[in-house]
Amino acid sequence: MKDPREVIIRPIVTEHSYDQMENNVYTFEVSKDSNKVEIRQAIEAIFNVSVVKVNTLNVKPKPKRVRYQVGQTRTWKKAMVTLKEGDTIELFGAN
Question: How far is CA 43 from CA 5, 58, 60, 65, 72, in A?
Fold first, then answer.
């Protein structure tokens, strides 16, 4: 098994993800080669909570430009983790 800190890169805190925290759904950026089982085990190990469901998606790059240079943003993987009723993760004092 991978180190849990290598699987979970950072929490994603946006307006939409912050609203989902009320439904026990937390959003994280995860490593691109991790699967749902590894993500579940990493969240349970780091935060000491019970995971009910893990949804993942690959975020595609967006075209960006700086002056005359055309490029793209990076690709990354997002995981939306649903916790058991009653469990919470304290992110920036939320909940």
Answer: 9, 19, 24, 36, 30
Give me 92's structure tokens.
Answer: 């920036």
In three-state secondary structure terms, 59 is strand
Q: Nearest Cα to 58, choosing from 78, 35, 87, 38?
A: 78
**pLDDT by 10-residue block (mean), the chain, 95 residues:** 91 95 96 97 96 98 96 97 94 60
The strand ranges marked E within the chain are 8-11, 25-30, 51-59, 63-66, 69-72, 76-83
Cα–Cα dist 41/52, whole Å? 11
Count of positions (residues) in the chain: 95
Structure tokens belonging to residue 19 = 């609203």
